[in-house]
Specification:
The structure holds 2 protein chains of 2 kinds. Chain A is an all-alpha fold. Chain A is built from 3 helices and no strands. In chain A, helix 1 packs antiparallel against helix 2. Chain A is flat and about 65 Å long. The longest helix of chain B is centred in the C-terminal third of the chain and has 37 residues. The mean pLDDT of chain B is 95. The chains are: A mainly alpha, B mainly alpha. At the A-B interface, helix 1, helix 2 and helix 3 of A face helix 1, helix 3 and helix 6 of B.
Chain lengths: 96, 202
């Protein structure tokens, strides 16, 4: 007899595939600058499912959350500080 | 034993946090260049192989689900099911790498590989070349991570078939799973940046 997969995993997988279909469809709808925002929001939703259900981030030792959060924290610092420069520069890219 | 398992799980989370920064250097380069050359990046994005990219996303998401199921099977002591699920996970990984290889060969045939044969008559050729440089760097390093994952999952499947894991000892399967899901997470973000970029315009 083949044991059945845990229900939470089945629902997560269905959710992930539906989100993939959603983001693929939305990519062809002209929304201007909102296209990338929608695409990244769907990616973030998928990432939350993977982190919470598959990787069980919220279960067990709470130190895990701090370690995972550190990765995100430095990522935000890197992008944040870099874009205080690039987003405000008027001469970028340099003229050839 | 419990403390050892916790230490191993925390260790892989520290490793994954450093991996986030490893990939995000390239993602920062992508963001800056996309900001600088929006038309060129949109044009390059439209040339990517969206069918292969989307199928591969579904393959990888499914492999993460089988991997998570494998961890449950290990905890429950289902030795045979665990072995089958680990083999399925590795096999899905191989499908992904195979499709990626097919995609690369098509891109080589279309003269899209910077440093080897890149050529384009578009007015945005320079930006398109930059996009493909980052595309090969990001997806190449991702595929390398996945290949390492396939080998580790394969080793876990071999050990599982010999009864190495059970309800009291399954940390290696759990740690392998966390690594596998991380590689999936990277792809979840690469997919919209590479394949969905520029689809609605032009």
């Amino acid at each position: 007899m083949m044991p059945k997969p845990p229900r939470s995993l089945v629902w997560s997988w269905i959710g992930l595939v539906l989100l993939l279909a959603l983001t693929l469809g939305m990519a062809f709808v002209p929304l201007g600058r909102a296209n990338i925002a929608v695409a990244l929001a769907v990616a973030a939703a998928k990432a939350i499912i993977v982190l919470l259900v598959f990787m069980e981030l919220a279960r067990g030792h709470s130190l895990k959350l701090i370690f995972a959060g550190a990765g995100l924290f430095w990522l935000i610092i890197m992008f944040g500080l870099s874009f205080t420069d690039y987003a405000t520069r008027t001469g970028f890219p340099p003229a050839h | 034993m419990r403390q050892q398992a916790e230490a191993a799980t925390l260790g892989i989370w520290v490793f994954l946090a450093t991996e986030v920064l490893f990939f995000s250097g390239m993602l920062l380069a992508y963001t800056v260049l996309r900001h600088a050359y929006p038309e060129g990046f949109a044009e390059a994005g439209r040339e990517t192989k969206i069918v292969i990219g989307s199928v591969n996303t579904a393959v990888l998401l499914t492999s993460s689900a089988t991997m998570a199921w494998a961890v449950h099977a290990a905890k429950a002591g289902h030795r045979k099911l665990l072995t089958i699920l680990l083999i399925a996970t590795a096999a899905l990984g191989l499908v992904f790498v195979g499709l990626k290889g097919l995609e690369y060969s098509q891109e080589y045939a279309e003269h899209l590989v910077p440093g080897l044969n890149f050529s384009s008559d578009s007015p945005h050729a320079h930006a398109i070349e930059l996009f493909y440089f980052l595309y090969f760097a990001l997806t190449g390093i991702h595929a390398l991570h996945l290949s390492i994952g396939i080998v580790i999952v394969g080793i876990m499947a071999w050990r599982a078939s010999h009864g190495a894991f059970g309800p009291t000892y399954h940390t290696p399967v759990e740690v392998t799973g966390l690594y596998w899901h991380f590689v999936d997470l990277v792809w979840i973000f690469l997919y919209p940046l590479i394949y969905l970029n520029g689809r609605s315009g032009g």
